[in-house]
Amino acid sequence: MLQLTKKSLFIQVMIGLVLGIAVGLLLPEQAASLKPLGDGFIKLIKMLIAPIVFCVVVSGITGAGDLKKVGRVGVKAVVYFEIVTTLALMLGLFLAFHSNMGVGMNVDPKALDASAMAAYTDSAHKLQHAGGVSFVMNLIPSTVFGAFASGDILQVLLFSILFGCALSLMRESAGGVIRLIHEAGHVFFKLIGLIVRLAPIGVFGSIAFTTAKYGISSLQHLGGLVLMFYLTCAVFVLGVLGTIMKLAGLNIVQFLRYLREELSIVAGTASSDAVLPQVMRKLEHLGIKDSTVGLVIPTGYSFNLDGFSIYLTLAAVFIAHATNTPLTMANLLTILAVSLVTSKGAHGIPGSAIVILAATLSAIPAIPVIGLVLVLSVDWFMGIARALTNLIGNCVATVVVARWEKDIDLARARKVLGRQQGYEFVPEVRSGAATPAAH
Fold first, then answer.
1. This prediction's pTM
2. Which of 63-72, 251-260, 317-326, 375-384 has the lowest mean pLDDT?
3. Which of 109, 190, 210, 244 has most Cβ atoms within 10 angstroms of its Cβ?
4. Highest-scoring range by mean pLDDT, 78-82, 267-271, 411-415
């Protein structure tokens, strides 16, 4: 059990968050210059994501042995992603429409400042005109090194799967390469463990800057949209994902408690990328085979964005209500259909939330795209819940696919989540090496 002592990363992150708010309020000018602390921490993490994904996926595929099993896990993951993100989109659409949030604002679209949206709408038009063929072509990197240099997770994932399959087919003569990649993975995980210790500083800088920029009073005036978004995400996590976890034989509350350190870092940085390697280690420690973790988590970061899906439909309906745009059932179904496609291309795009929302609204003529200005100022606050829900959704997806494939030691998982003695997660050592699970 992770003890809540002064050495606990969770407590340190909480202290950094409180100090960040205090500095942002008391010393706003100085706090405004602390943003690089948060940005620097996230960049350090992102620096290692590509090589870690490569090592984990390759080790997972070569460890699985059966390539048919690898393909089976991938298909099951994609099927699950589609079902659950559709539920997230429908939940956001239903609650947004029936809550009537934004009604009465009587915003005139012509009076909104379009200059703030210029960069986002340009990116959205490029994304919209790219089409499905372009999206598929973009999955293929121009060079192997280019995929790692750009940090495009899907490109790295594609190369890793191909490389892992090739090694698996020539296992006898490639034993040295397989061992090298496996050991390199241990080194990268050790390195990420060192960087994660800087999380309290990153959270402190990020929160101090945000508080100084928006002021604590802004939290009182963000309105129904932010509140509704947080409530919808909570309903989705506890209701939908909670039910899914119960069917899988585990408890969602215990699961969230197990991931509390990672969730606290995401809450402070509004980025789920910051904890991707650590989350993968924890899921392995839970008793899930590394081959399943290595395939589901990286893929889910682009195709299983539950929080982002809720955001798309919720924001679209809010803008329609705020600009007095009447919505018919055909409009609602169009929002749902378009969001199913656009939500899959969010990860890795700068300002992805606004860009994808702009691309979504561009395909729905009834809703003025300029209405995005209304949500632009609160996007950071909504980004916290987006990132948290995305992360939780991907972790739950890994559990479900592992249960589906019988790749999880359920008895061990219950002991870990129940915090039984002897099943503690040790951050300094990769869980798979320290306490191997029986499968």
1. 0.72
2. 63-72
3. 210
4. 411-415
User: What is the pLDDT, as a whole number, of residue 151?
Assistant: 72
Mean pLDDT for 388-400 is: 94
Question: CA of 136: how far to CAs of 86, 140, 272, in Å?
Answer: 21, 7, 24
* Whether pLDDT at 9 is above 80: no
Does residue 276 fall inside a structural domain?
Answer: yes
**CATH number for the domain harbouring residue 207:** 1.10.3860.10
Structurally, the chain folds into a number of domains equal to 1
Sign of the four-CA dihedral 284, 287, 292, 297 = negative
Give the CA-trace dihedral at 150, 152, 155, 160, to 10 degrees: 90
Report d(CA 150, CA 262) in Å as an integer. Answer: 25
More confident residue, 86 or 211: 86
pLDDT digits (tens, 9 = 90+) for 152-169: 777 887 888 888 888 888
Residue 408 has phi, psi (to 5 degrees) of -125, 135
In a domain, 310, yes or no: yes
- Segment 181-195 mean pLDDT: 82
Domain containing 362 equals: 9-427
pLDDT digits (tens, 9 = 90+) for 12-67: 877 888 888 888 888 888 888 888 888 888 788 778 878 887 887 787 777 666 66
* Three-state secondary structure of the chain: CCCCCCCCHHHHHHHHHHHHHHHHHHCHHHHHHHHHHHHHHHHHHHHHHHHHHHHHHHHHHHHHCCHHHHHHHHHHHHHHHHHHHHHHHHHHHHHHHHHCCCCCCCCCHHHCCHHHHHHHHHHHHHHHHHHHHHHHHHCCCCCHHHHHHHCCHHHHHHHHHHHHHHHHHCCCCCHHHHHHHHHHHHHHHHHHHHHHCCHHHHHHHHHHHHHHHHCHHHHHCCCHHHHHHHHHHHHHHHHHHHHHHHHCCCCHHHHHHHCHHHHHHHHHHCCCHHHHHHHHHHHHHCCECHHHHHHHHHHHHHHCCHHHHHHHHHHHHHHHHHCCCCCCHHHHHHHHHHHHHHHHHCCCCCCHHHHHHHHHHHCCCCCCHHHHHHHHCCHHHHHHHHHHHHHHHHHHHHHHHHHHHCCECHHHHHHHHCCCCCCCCCCCCCHHHHCCCCC
pLDDT of residue 256: 95
How far is residue 113 CA from its own chain's centroid? 31
Residue 134 lies in a domain: yes
